[in-house]
Input
Amino acid sequence: MNVAIIGTGLMGRPMGERIMNANHRLIAYNRTPEKAKPLAFLGADVVSIPAEAIASSECVVLMLADAQAIRETLLQKDALGSVAESTVIQMGTISPEESITIQGEILRAGGDYFEAPVLGSIPQAEKGELIVMVGSTSEQFGRWSDLLRCFGPDPVLIGPVGHAAALKLALNQLIASLTAAFALSLNFLERKEIDLDLFMKILRKSALYAPMFDKKLERMIERDYANPNFPAKHLAKDIDLFLNEAKPLRLQTVGLEGVRQLVQMTLTRGWAETDYSALFQVISQGVG
Ligand SMILES: NC(=O)c1ccc[n+]([C@@H]2O[C@H](COP(=O)([O-])OP(=O)(O)OC[C@H]3O[C@@H](n4cnc5c(N)ncnc54)[C@H](OP(=O)(O)O)[C@@H]3O)[C@@H](O)[C@H]2O)c1
Output
């Protein structure tokens, strides 16, 4: 198949590589052309406008930062004009409402659309071990499952467009809340000069343990937030998306609003582009 990818950032680059490993022809577009170069080196056709990628492919994988980025690439006049006959597979993290709106615009332009947001990060994207959650019809799911298996072994059909996006937001607010809680416990024990190895040994044996704690432990202890898997700015985006969706449901979200403040401080203090575990630093800097 001829498969286009728009967005070859941290996740899009390895996902593009997986598409090529499955013997599809890849046509790649990225706003900053340098970031598509590693894919060109592996044999992808890198193009300079989104419309060119769309016109020369049967389907378009979107791995862009947010809905605004989708608007500025796929939903521009030329690109939208070339989407007829093509299927757009939206894999970034956007809200259910945004996904449904974009679906409407693609359908009006004569194209097809579904969402397939992913859980997991760069290492899982490189190995094809992402958890792929699909918001589509069962017909679309059947038609595109093989391609989705480039990214993860068992794509799961969640429901119609919007449902997978909602599930993804529910997972990402957990990332934020768990990380904030873990970073607070670690900071507390450091100040109390209590052995962190002992803390981790007890935590690992308990029902409180989440594997992500160990994934972030070293970064936090070493204060090493460089080379992010998931930049803090995207976690901030996902918290806002979740809060916006939760508001009309009249859920009590004060807990997440507190975590939001922490993540916002992470951004304003200069760690927007670094790994989100940098929120450890904000807690460590304390108040006042
Ligand atoms: N990293 C993770 O662990 C992870 C895991 C699951 C889901 N996600 C989600 O997947 C999506 C991509 O994540 P990522 O980590 O790959 O992010 P990233 O490295 O920041 O890449 C973002 C991509 O969006 C493009 N972009 C941003 N704003 C744009 C605009 N206004 N116009 C055109 N292009 C624009 C960037 O182009 P430039 O290169 O020109 O900036 C880049 O290609 C996000 O929605 C994220 O929340 C990330």
The mean pLDDT is 97. The domain at 2-160 is CATH 3.40.50.720 (Rossmann fold). Residues 7-12, 30-32, 35, 63-66, 68-69, 72-73, 92-93, 118, 121, 229-230, 234 surround NAP (CB under 6 Å). Strands lie at 2-6, 25-29, 45-46, 59-62, 87-90, 112-115, 118-119, 131-135, 156-159.
